[in-house]
Amino acid sequence: MATEPIVIEAIINGEKHKAEKQAPRENPAHPDEIVGYAPLNTKEETIQAIDAADQAFTEWRDTSFDDRINRMRRAIQKIKDKTPEIAELLAREHGKALYDAKGEIAVSLMWMEFACDNIAEVLKDELHEHDGGKTIIARDAIGVISAISPWNYPISLSTIKIAPALLAGNTMVLKPSPLAPLAVSKVTELIANEFPPGVLNLVHGEAEVGVELTSNPKVAKIAFTGGTETAKHIMKAAADTIKHMTLELGGNDAAIVLDDFDVNDEKAMRRLVVSNFLTAGQICMIAKRVYVHESIYDTFIEKYREAADKWIRVGDPFDKNVTVGAVNNKKQIEFVQSLIDDSKQKGAEVIKLGKIVDENLFKQGYFMQPTLVLGADYDDPIVEQEQFGPAVPILPFKDDEHAIHLANKSIFGLTSSVWGKQEHAVKVAKRIQAGTTMINTAAVQGLDVRFPFGGVKQSGIGREYGKEGILAYAETHVINMPKTLDLPYIPE
Ligand code: NAD
């Protein structure tokens, strides 16, 4: 169902800005089809966008919560009205199944609503009266925020930043990923149209734009979601001007299946399969390595394969029967395949899972059949690195101590999950180093926008979602009115 390619433009100071160069975005399921074009903005255009955000800041920060919330709620309604066409565009440029694209928009809206409902309460002045004096803890806007988002969940990982930032009185320049730039730009335009010029700006491009966004002295905070290696460049670029930062980075999330997990619980088994292969495994918080207690390992593998073969149907994102769409880009397939090949060559068993719905399409597009890797070494790259694609290693462990050690020996610590009897699972969960640990579920199935989300170790700094995801866009400002200014230890 190819349609005319759409053309996206940057938004600077409330106006569409025509760039000299544009980059095509193909449909990963049908790579011959160009879905649209996004601009390749320059350093100068990025500076213009930052200047516009900087100029808009002074007036915007003095607006009331009511004004900001009303504008955001109007934008939410516009996104709701246009969800069917935005979801189709997202599925076509990204490769994810249509139901998955709709789910991403639904989660984005949920968060935007939460931010509207809670902003005034979370950021209101706190008044403390003490010993005859008074202290106000105010939550000021920070300034110009540079938001940089990745390709895997472009809409939710952009709105997760836009909503609290603007509601808290900041202004923003957003740069989405060139690998899924179109649908998120449509959403950004709908939001930007409801706000004064310069409050929300949009630029596109590669590292040149990213470097300006992360080093320009007028930028007060960077809100970044993406890879850990990119984050290291960003921290260096931002060092000269000491910027605030929220970094949501890669993960290598462990799923621990305890000896008291019921292998005959088909629903739980399906949840585990989904948490390995939803969005073809291209989610930061997907369960990327599974450790199973050795006493149930053989039966577990048998039941897991049954559940996986039943749920996984790889094919066209628009086919209603399909559960796993295309991989977003060829480079990602090559990387995941290299990890599988490495383990296979060392003696691991490689098992293909599920059904391919249309063999011809599968050969033409960027498709990859979900793959199980058994018998890999605990230190193999497929176990230690973030594969970010449809392949998962399953390995046995001896006892809880061993499982906890395996989960924690990673440089990452985003999410994790423990599967088994609740009390036992919680005991194990408490000892895992991660921002979130889910019990008997994992990945987006256990996500709740009301609670903070983020990583420990090299999976990131700071939190998004929940009240902490709002406070991340405010500067704490203490206004002190002590009863007496005379301190007893200062001589007359
Ligand atoms: P990436 O780091 O390659 O790119 C992310 C963004 O950074 C893109 O917009 C890119 O153009 C931009 N960028 C690249 N170089 C830059 C530079 N030098 N300065 C500034 N910006 C620059 O990541 P990706 O491949 O788009 O996304 C996949 C990664 O993101 C995975 O590691 C995944 O785990 C991670 N991720 C994390 C979360 C989370 O919440 N923790 C969520 C989704 C994805």
Automatic annotation (TrEMBL):
Pfam family name, one: Aldedh
Highest taxon of source: Bacteria
Positions annotated as active site in the UniProt record: 248
Keywords recorded for this protein, A-Z: Oxidoreductase
Every Aldehyde dehydrogenase domain range: 21-478
GO MF annotation terms: oxidoreductase activity, acting on the aldehyde or oxo group of donors, NAD or NADP as acceptor
PANTHER family in alphabetical order: ALDEHYDE DEHYDROGENASE-RELATED (PTHR11699)
Family: Belongs to the aldehyde dehydrogenase family.
Listed name of the protein: Acyl-CoA reductase
Species name: Terribacillus aidingensis
Lineage: Bacteria, Bacillati, Bacillota, Bacilli, Bacillales
